[in-house]
Amino acid sequence: MSGLRIGVVGLGARGGLARHAHRPGEGSEVTVVADPSERAAVQASDWFGEDVATVGSVDELLAGHEVDAVMVLTPDHLHAEVALKTLGAGLATFCEKPMAISVEDADAMLELAMEKRARLYIGHNMRHMPVVRQMKAIVDSGRIGRVRAIWCRHFVGAGGDFYFKDWHAERAKAMSLLLQKGAHDIDVIHWLAGGFTRRVSGIGDLAVYGDITDRRDNSDRRMGDWFDPDIWPPTAQKELNPITDVEDISMLQMTLDNGVLASYQQCHFTPDYWRNYTVIGDAGRIENMGDGGGDQIHIWESRRSGPGRPDAVEVVARADGGHGGADPSLIGEFLRFARSGGATEVSAIAAREAVATGVSGAESIRAGGMPRDVPPVPEAVREYFDAGQPAEGVEPR
User: Fold this and answer.
1) Which end of the chain is more exposed for a tag (fewer CB within 10 A), N or C?
2) Which residues pair with 33 in a beta bridge?
3) Structural domain tally of the chain?
4) Is residue 302 in a domain?
């Protein structure tokens, strides 16, 4: 169980996740980082020590360094390209979400992981967020009866800074923000509902940021270099990505395979930044009022309740670390999985279903709202991953 050597590919916006995996005193250590930028090399040395090796590509990493697991933290359009190489080498692979920006690439990753018996884990950290886990526990308890509908509203108050000043703004590199952002929420909707979307339709638009003409190639900078919370209104944003063609507002309607109906709304020009889930059962409903530690989940179980007057309130637990403590918990589960395999809270099948729903939803939006059928995962593939990805364990050094 000791001596897990970890390679990291990409040390950009989500590179901080690798810091949770660097636990030399606990048997896991980042030993090599692949990133072409000089800035990443300096960052790697600061985070992982002077002995960490740095290379320019995943090919150099695989050719020149022995590792037991790899974390793929690149921009979205490179996830599948890199992960297919690490899975092909038989390595336990952590791939940041979304696992890919096409259904074909996501399916190829599942097929190769199955063929090589390589462990594939996707970074859906929201399954480890206290607010989501507490809602899941309420649903699973049967307290609100059988789930019939789920609504999610995602207010992305930092949308202009986070997603419209770099590659996220390009369809060719992100496909849609229904993947980069929506994959989280679609996965949570599926998890709470106990099913997967089989039919989706949507409407959306590039309503605000498409009208801004001040553009700049920001590839020489990172998000921290341009983020400014005092910019308001969104029309005052400057230095947007030269190519900006993803929607900044999207709305989906989903029919799941178990009959649950769901809707998802995402807006990138709101002043506030949080997610609001409503889960309606046939014996009650729950709704989160905020999604951080100390916020509340309201529970309605009678007709005597009302607005601001739920029958019960559950306080969202506090935890240390990014995303309400989800990030360190996510990486902890991956390290255990990389060593031992077996079942995990995060599901590679569900990650693929989130991609398929997001892609199909974006296609519907761009086709004027025409419904799209979401292709299911082949049964043999689903059975393999549901069994916990059996494979041989990582041998200690």
Assistant:
1) C
2) 8, 54
3) 1
4) yes
The CATH number of the domain where 260 resides is what? 3.30.360.10
CB 92 within 8 A of CB 70: yes
Which of 299, 301, 273 minimizes the C-alpha distance to 286? Answer: 299
CA 392-395-397 angle, to 5 degrees, is 165
Residues 6+ apart with CB under 8 A from 59: 85
DSSP code string of 283-324: TEEEEEE-SSTT-EEEEE-STT-BTTB-SEEEEPPP-SSTTT
Task: Identify whether 243 is part of a domain.
Answer: yes
What's the rounded Cα separation, in Å, for the pair 358 and 100? 11
In a domain, 275, yes or no: yes
Alpha helices in 219-280 (DSSP H): 223-226
Number of H helices, E strands in the chain: 14, 15
Greatest pairwise CA separation for the chain in angstroms: 67
pLDDT value at 379 more than 60 = yes
Q: Which of 13, 8, 5 is nearest to 218 (CA)?
A: 13
The rounded distance, in Å, linking the Cα atoms of 344 and 337 is 7
Structural domain boundaries, residue 284: 127-315
pLDDT in tens, 253-302: 999 999 999 999 999 999 999 999 999 999 999 999 999 999 999 999 99
Helical axes 79-88 vs 103-116, angle rounded to 10°: 10
Mean pLDDT across 361-385: 97
With respect to residue 282, please indicate whether it lies within any of the assigned structural domains: yes
113: which 2 tokens? Answer: 């992981």
**Tokens matching residue 141:** 């308890």
- Cα–Cα dist 242/214, whole Å: 9
Dig out the tokens for 33 from the structure: 């980082």
Query: Distance between CA 145 and CA 154 in Å, rounded?
Result: 25
Asked if the model's pLDDT at residue 390 lies above 80, the reply is no
Per-residue pLDDT tens digits for 304-328:
998 989 999 999 999 988 888 899 9
Cβ(154)–Cβ(181) below 8 Å: yes
Residue type, 37: S
